[in-house]
Specification:
The chain contains 37 helices and 35 strands. It is an alpha/beta fold and 1007 residues long. An 8-stranded parallel beta barrel has the order 3-6-7-8-9-10-11-12, surrounded by 8 helices. A 7-stranded mixed sheet has the order 27-28-29-26-25-31-32, sandwiched between helices. The chain has a 6-stranded mixed sheet with strand order 22-21-20-23-24-34, with helices on both faces. The longest helix is centred in the middle third of the chain and has 25 residues. The structure holds flavin-adenine dinucleotide.
């Protein structure tokens, strides 16, 4: 920053502080509230408090409030006696004293939180909000109105939100002309500006916004957005597009520029967009916007803020293994805000500047910059949030700056997410408001230049580095990290995926041989036509079909190559797996494309499957090295014990089509890295993906005969492998029927058989998600929908029963029906596809038969429309049955399709009982905000993988080892630390080292 700008920043900052002090002593302010006060003193209490605030609106009566109070603040590990004084006599209610006492206490708590919410939310109805605008105008403060309603899960909700905005606009059109004129807030450097100013979030106008489907998102939102803009334009109102999480950033900017740049709106000046300075990309986004605005010819406004989702962005990126998009240091965010403000002001008149901040330093810097650039005073605007830093707003208005208040209004329930964001922001250690207004940090400190060594002009012009990337993990010892899934946020990623689809399309109809020993062979039993389930007329490829005789030869080849492979050593084998992983990573989108066409996997699902295959290779490589290192121990003198593992021999790998690469790779690579040789029998619907794996294994260095590829009929070739005396191990994932058959056949001993066969068998599920009475329905609806209908329900982890507790039933069911009615059933290669076809006509028929059974057992709650898709591919419409009796066939048998049973339970105990009353125990889920019910589910909801407050699909290698029990499988969890042990036999060698009375000293290794 130039020295005179810095000096002027400090001067303006001091002046603001002087004015604020006078006002602060007169006003109370939110930080005086008991709630905020308590939460700032104790981090653990803060978490419990904010979680409690979040659940409170969902609690229907005083008993529920009292119970939750007890669970949040009076449970072991979470005891906060101080909370008792917070508005209610908790002890009385819990000791079972009169319900009147309890309801009085609960009422006081509700009141306390509502008061807090009212600090940040300007009212419930448009009339409340308009009244508040009018009151602010009297203080020479302008306003922008935000209708709360962030989590829109369906088009019905998006439409309702849209209608609310129209109604707001109508109400304001009537009121605004009545307000007395105020030249400070009704005009800028170019003349009059709108009195009506709205802030909207795009995700509330269209429920299916998705960066992966940028075009579909634009088309989907166009109707409502343009209608709103037309009405606003006719009324001369300002419309600002707010910025949400990073996932939607490029999409939001893209839609804004496309719409605002279109002929209809090109000449309209009163449009604005938000940029978040905590994002590392914000400076370059601002440059893009500035260039675009220059071409547009009419200015737009940019509201520069720091950003409201910092914690979420940091956590979300880490969970997915993505680069963290926000700065890691507060001072970097502050410095970037100043760099962006300089560029924004330099971009005048193409961009008009609004600064949304409560930080005196940040605001003073922007004001000083604008003075040094000699911009008219009324060319810029400062904006602040309703209920925050009111003395600062008034001080700025007094100094003659145009100040606008961002005023959210609406019901408390949709307002909770906003309230919790504000509470988090205000109580954060690094918050300017907390430091300035609560902790009384000195003015000098608060006004300090956040980046004294950085030349802002150079940074803005690109001469100095924009960002110091401090989020890269430090290099450390080799450890497993999940392969990140593709975020599909960039045009480049989407274009590359499309190109891969085109590339694979060109290879349709190719012939794929089988592989025995070192030889490719034609199928003696004919050919398998691999069809595209999205368009059954398309032949993806023609694959050789093995005969029983070929199966015999494959077993022979595997047996012959076993000793050398066994003796190669685990390190060499692990390196081959790592090479295979590297090949897959390089060919990721191509492999995905094959899955899209052969398995009908939508883009994201295919990408996830390939990422999981890479994970299996790398995880098992690392793990095998660990567990196969011999452990030599001398527990007592004169004796050495060596414990180690050896491979079992020939393994038959029989895999399912629903995770065509991941499961096949997982089972085959586990067997291989342990030193077994394998015969890969791919599933009949997805043999090409099996062939691709075979080729990758060979390219990575798997020797001849160690892996053999044997596509063919399960009944013939599969059965031959299972029963053959030379097959030592069978790794199977698939249906319960086939799994049980394999288990019983493998138990028979046949002539020539040298040992007992080992069976690793993962079977199906009939998984339930319990939706508790206090669940966050925004999350529960999306979680159940994704778990039930993602990949058309064809996952063994899929949710097929939603068991809803008490009064949550009706609202949950209604919202779920509306949400499912909003998602797109489409061909898997369509980026907008949410429900693809089922795998083939046979599966389609079976599922349709179950739907017919369901019609006789329970009322149909939802059945989607297929239209032209019906004739095109093996599609089944998403189907929901309601009030399903727990013992109906559709509630007990695995359907493996897009069919969901919704069931009602009187209370949580009943829900648990229904959830467990099936022969399977694979996955389960619970959406609840009751700590006690969550604890009960942990203890009693006995399934292989239990998910709390999230969907039941998408287990990650190492993080969520996957597999179940009861009729869901025998064997240890895939992707977990004990999985490989199943592919091995343990051995121990003991040597007596005592000779003539002496022994070497005791030495230990391993473990
Ligand atoms: C009128 C108005 C409209 C707004 N609209 C939007 C919007 O559309 N979208 C949106 O996201 N936000 C929006 N905001 C919210 C705004 O982002 C927050 O209120 C703001 O971040 C608070 O910043 P500050 O300058 O007042 O406070 P400060 O306390 O100076 O700064 C807080 C900022 O620093 C960041 N921070 C905290 N710790 C760190 C760290 N360790 N490393 C890096 N950064 C850190 C925080 O995430 C936050 O962004 C709006 C704010 C206003 C006033």
């Amino acid at each position: 920053m130039l020295p005179n700008v810095e000096a002027r920043t400090l001067q303006l900052g001091r002046e603001l502080f002087t004015r604020i002090k006078v006002k602060k002593s007169k006003s109370g302010g939110w930080w005086n509230s008991k709630l905020i006060d308590m939460s700032m003193k104790d981090e653990a209490l803060k978490i419990q408090l904010f979680r409690f605030v979040d659940v409170l609106p969902a609690l229907r009566d005083s008993k529920q409030v009292a119970r939750h109070m007890d669970e949040y603040f009076n449970a072991p590990g979470h005891q906060f006696p101080g909370i008792m004084s917070w508005g209610m006599s908790l002890g009385a209610s819990l000791a079972g004293l009169s319900s009147l006492t309890a309801s009085l206490g609960a009422g006081a708590v509700r009141k306390s939180v509502e008061e807090m919410a009212r600090t940040f939310i300007s009212g419930t109805t448009p009339a409340d909000a308009i009244k508040a605008v009018s009151a602010f105008r009297k203080k020479h403060l302008a306003a922008t109105l935000d209708q709360l309603g962030e989590a829109v899960v369906s088009e019905v909700e998006a439409e309702a939100y849209f209608q609310k905005y129209l109604a707001l606009l109508d109400a304001m059109i009537l009121e605004a002309p009545l307000w007395p004129a105020d030249s400070l807030i009704d005009s800028d450097s170019r003349g009059a500006i709108p009195r009506i100013n709205l802030s909207i979030k795009l995700s509330s106008l269209y429920s299916q916004l998705d960066p992966l489907d940028a075009k579909g998102s634009r088309n989907g939102i166009a109707g409502r957005l343009e209608h709103l803009l037309d009405r606003a334009m006719a009324a001369g109102a300002f419309v600002n597009i707010d910025m949400e999480d990073y996932r939607l950033k490029d999409l939001t900017l893209g839609i804004f520029m496309e719409v605002a740049g279109s002929p209809k709106y090109r000449a309209y000046r009163h449009l604005g967009i938000v940029l978040q300075a905590y994002l590392k990309e914000s400076l370059s986004d601002l440059k893009t916007l500035a260039n675009w605005a220059k071409h547009r010819g009419t200015p737009v406004t940019v509201r520069l803020v720091k950003g409201a989702y910092w914690d979420y962005e940091s956590i979300h990126a880490q969970q997915h293994g993505w680069p963290i998009p926000v700065f890691a240091k507060k001072s970097e965010t502050d410095a970037n805000f100043e760099a962006c403000s300089l560029l924004l002001l330099q971009s005048y008149p193409h961009l008009e500047a609004a600064f949304g901040s409560h930080n005196v330093r940040s605001i003073a810097a922007a004001l000083a910059q604008s003075e040094s650039l000699k911009l008219p005073k009324n060319a810029i605007e400062i904006q602040g949030l309703y209920g925050m830093a009111d003395p600062l707003k008034e001080a700025l208005a007094e100094m003659g700056w145009r100040m606008r208040v961002y005023m959210p209004f609406g019901e408390l329930l949709p307002g909770m997410a906003y309230l919790v964001r504000r509470l988090l922001e205000n109580t954060a250690n690094e918050s300017f408001l907390r430091q300035g207004f609560v902790e009384n940090v000195s003015e000098e400190k608060l006004l300090e230049n956040p980046a004294p060594d950085v030349n802002l002009s150079a940074r803005v012009s690109g001469m100095a580095p924009a960002v110091q990337d401090i989020s890269k993990p430090a290099p450390g010892p080799r450890r497993f990290q999940n392969e990140p899934e593709t975020a599909f946020l960039t045009i480049k990623e989407r274009a590359e995926f499309s190109a891969a689809l085109d590339g694979v399309r060109k290879q349709f109809g190719r012939h794929w041989p089988l592989m025995i020993g070192n030889k490719e062979e034609k199928g003696e039993a004919g050919e398998i036509m691999s069809l595209n389930p999205s368009r059954l007329s398309e032949v993806v490829g023609i694959v050789a079909k093995a005969s029983v005789a070929q199966a015999g030869r494959a077993i022979e080849a595997a047996k012959k190559s076993f000793p050398a492979w066994r003796d190669l050593g685990v390190k060499a084998r692990a390196e081959i797996l790592r090479k295979a992983a590297a090949i897959m990573r390089k060919r990721k989108f191509e492999l995905c494309a094959w899955e899209v066409f052969e398995a009908g996997k939508p883009w994201r699902e295919a990408d996830g499957d390939v990422a999981e295959a890479i994970d299996f290779l790398e995880y098992y490589a690392l793990h095998a090295e660990r567990i196969m290192a011999p452990s030599v121990r001398s527990q007592v003198p004169g004796e050495v014990n060596e414990n180690f593992y050896q491979p079992r021999g020939v393994a038959a790998v029989i895999s399912p089509w629903n995770f065509p690469l991941a499961i096949l790779t997982g089972m085959a690579s586990a067997a291989l890295v342990c030193g077994n040789t394998v015969i890969i029998k791919p599933p009949e619907p997805t043999p090409i993906i099996g062939a691709l794996l075979m080729n990758i294994l060979r390219e990575a260095g798997v020797p001849d005969g160690v892996a053999n590829f044997l596509p063919g009929s399960g009944r013939e070739v599969g059965a031959h492998l299972v029963t053959h005396p030379d097959v030592n191990l069978i790794a199977f994932t698939g249906s319960r029927g086939v799994g049980l058959w394999i288990n019983s056949e493998a138990a028979q001993t046949r002539a020539g058989q040298q040992g007992v066969k080992k069976v690793i068998c993962e079977m199906g599920g009939k998984n339930a998600i319990i939706v508790d009475e206090d669940a966050d329905l925004d999350e529960a609806v999306l979680g159940v929908m994704q778990s039930a209908f993602g990949y058309a329900g064809q996952k063994c982890s899929a949710c097929s029963r939603a068991i809803v507790v008490g009064s949550a039933y009706e609202p949950f069911l209604r919202r779920l029906q509306e949400a499912v009615g909003s998602i797109k059933v489409a061909a898997a290669d369509d980026p907008g596809c949410r429900v693809p076809p089922v795998i083939d006509s046979h599966a389609q028929k079976t599922i349709q038969e179950y739907i017919e059974i369901g019609r006789k057992e329970a009322p149909l709650a939802f059945s989607g429309e297929l239209g032209a898709l019906k004739a095109q591919g093996s599609f089944v419409a998403p189907t929901i049955f309601k009030d399903v009796p727990p013992h109906a066939r559709i509630a007990q048998e695995e359907i493996f399709g897009p069919v969901l049973c919704v069931m009602k339970a009187a209370d949580f105990s009943a829900a648990l009982h229904v959830a467990l009353d099936v022969p399977f125990a694979l996955t389960g889920g619970i959406f609840s905000r009751s700590p006690a019910n969550i604890a009960r589910a942990r203890a009693e909801f006995r399934v292989g993988n239990l998910y709390i407050n999230r969907g039941t699909t998408g287990a990650k290698v190492d993080r969520q080892p996957f597999g179940g029990f009861k009729m869901s499988g025998i064997g240890s969890k895939a992707g977990g630390s004990d999985y490989l042990l199943q592919f091995l036999e343990p051995r121990t060698i003991t040597e007596n080292t005592l000779r003539r009375g002496f022994a070497p000293p005791v030495e230990e290794s391993g473990e």
